[in-house]
Amino acid sequence: MVLDITKPKDYIDLASSLSKELAQSAVERDAQAGVPEEEINKLRESGLLALIVPKQYGGIAATWIDALKIVRKLAKADGSIGQLYGNHLNLTTLGHVLGTPAQKEKYYRETAKNNLFWANAMNPRDTRLKINPEGENFRVNGVKSFGTGISVADFRAFSALEDGVELPFLFIIPKDREGVVSNQDWDNIGQRRTDSGSYTFNNVLVEKDEILGPPNSPDSAFSTFLAIIAQLTKTNVFLGITKGAFAAAREYTKTTTKPWITSGVDSATQDPYILHHYGDFWIEIQAAIALADQAAEKLQAAWEKDAELTYQERGEVAMPAASFANAVFTARGLASRVGIDITNRIFEVTGTRATATKYGFDRYWRDLRTFTLHDPVDYKLRAIGDWVLNDQLPVITQYS
Question: What is the pTM of this model?
Answer without folding.
Answer: 0.95
